[in-house]
Specification:
It contains 10 helices and 17 strands. The chain is of the alpha/beta class and 382 residues long. The chain has 2 domains: 132 residues, Rossmann fold; 243 residues, Dihydrodipicolinate Reductase, domain 2 (2-Layer Sandwich). Strands 16-15-14-13-7-12-11-8-17 form a 9-stranded mixed β-sheet. Helix 4 links the parallel strand 4 and strand 5. Helix 5 packs antiparallel against helix 10.
């Protein structure tokens, strides 16, 4: 007979939908899991919207106060899908209440917040993970397997970018439910914590720790109307960021992110160049991994396109027949499945809060490097 993990979801926006979909699909596609997800309660401040959300996604009950949700005896795990400024308070309270915690990225607004979160979570000994979902894209997971096999040889370069264009208009406000990412108080930083955090987490997972960074940032629109005050206020987040770095393995890294790249809604690419081979991946063609091996016979040497849909490739045995693709939402299903599996094996579901703190260290040093126009050591312990 299967066990139950009773989920309390806090935050019913975009990420709340992706996580809820993941829990709902687990039993369909990962029937071997011994623990069943039970959507016990959803929480958001607006009573009407949270009740509509709960009905749509199958939650048994609702709350409008997250503290009441955490205090409930029928909640085993708290899933945090709120803006960044509430991550620390909710996670710390959840840990003290003995709840497991699944937290959206980034871990926190600042390194100090993240360090306190890790301290409390580890003292409480509760299971935890942070939703850096791009690790669970099958093509990216396959890249990890290829790198770990040594096929690339010594790594020389890692480069990544994450480009969007949704904030170019000066009429876009800061603050509020839809644009809190432009409010430094809610977000902590701009593209660094929102987009580059994804790139950094994936990079360190694939290529090891980042030792030091040199960065520059730009805020193109200096003032925006704030959603709450309806007055123009200084913009405190970074609209664009470029940084380069040294990895612990001696390779060089180059990262770029912006919300001012007209024509790009969510272009996330990565490329790794090694002694023998290279790999590259593009979110817009997320089921493919491109691979070049210099050891191939010269007359056929060239970039090959690996269509990651076969049952012997990561996660794909759970889905369709070879040749049929999956999508963005499946990366969250994979992370949820890995978390539930970790409960059976009693092993961490990476990235844990401690892992995500290392990404937070890099993000903070990127911002500090840009502000001081100097190289900064990250202090990462990967």
């Amino acid at each position: 007979m299967s066990k139950e993990l009773r989920i309390g979801l806090i935050g019913c926006g975009f990420m709340g939908r992706t996580h809820s979909n993941a829990y709902n699909r687990l039993q369909n596609f990962f029937p071997d899991l011994k623990t069943k997800a039970v959507l016990k309660a959803a929480c958001a401040r607006n009573k009407d919207s949270v009740e509509a959300f709960a009905k749509q996604w199958g939650y048994e009950s609702t709350e409008t106060d997250w503290k009441k949700l955490i205090a409930r005896d029928d909640i085993d795990a708290v899933d945090i899908c709120t803006p960044n400024d509430t991550h620390a308070e909710i996670a710390i309270a959840s840990a003290k209440a003995g709840k497991m915690i699944l937290c959206e990225k980034p871990l926190s607004r600042t390194l100090a917040e993240g360090e306190e979160m890790v301290k409390v979570i580890e003292k409480a000994g509760v299971k935890n993970t942070v939703w850096y979902n791009y690790r669970r894209v099958p093509a990216v997971t396959l890249a990890k397997k290829i790198i770990d096999s040594g096929k690339l040889g010594k790594i020389f370069h890692y480069r990544a970018n994450f480009l969007q264009d949704w904030t170019i208009s000066p009429d876009v406000p800061q603050g509020g439910a839809g644009t809190w990412r432009l409010d430094v108080g809610a977000a902590g930083s701009g593209v660094t914590g929102d987009l580059l955090a994804h790139c950094i987490d994936t990079a360190m997972w694939l290529n090891g720790g980042i030792k030091d960074v040199s960065a520059m940032t730009e805020t193109f629109i200096k003032e925006r109307v704030h959603h709450d005050s309806r007055k123009k206020q200084k913009v405190g987040i970074d609209d664009a960021c470029i940084f380069h770095c040294h990895f612990d393995n001696g390779s060089l890294g180059l990262f770029e992110s912006t919300r001012y790249a007209r024509g790009h809604k969510a272009l996330y690419t990565l490329e790794i160049n090694g002694e023998h081979a290279s790999i590259r991946w593009d979110l817009h063609d997320m089921n493919r991994l491109e691979y070049f091996d210099h050891r191939d016979e010269s007359v056929v040497r060239g970039w090959r396109s690996i269509h990651v849909t076969d049952g012997d490739q990561p996660y794909m045995d759970k889905w369709w027949v070879p040749g049929l693709i999956i999508g963005y939402e499946h990366s969250f299903i994979h992370q949820a499945a890995d978390f539930f599996k970790s409960l059976e094996t009693n092993k961490p579901c990476n990235p844990t809060f401690k892992d995500a703190l290392q990404t937070q260290k890099v993000c903070e040093m990127v911002i500090e490097s840009a502000n001081t126009r100097s190289w900064k050591d990250t202090g990462v312990d990967w």
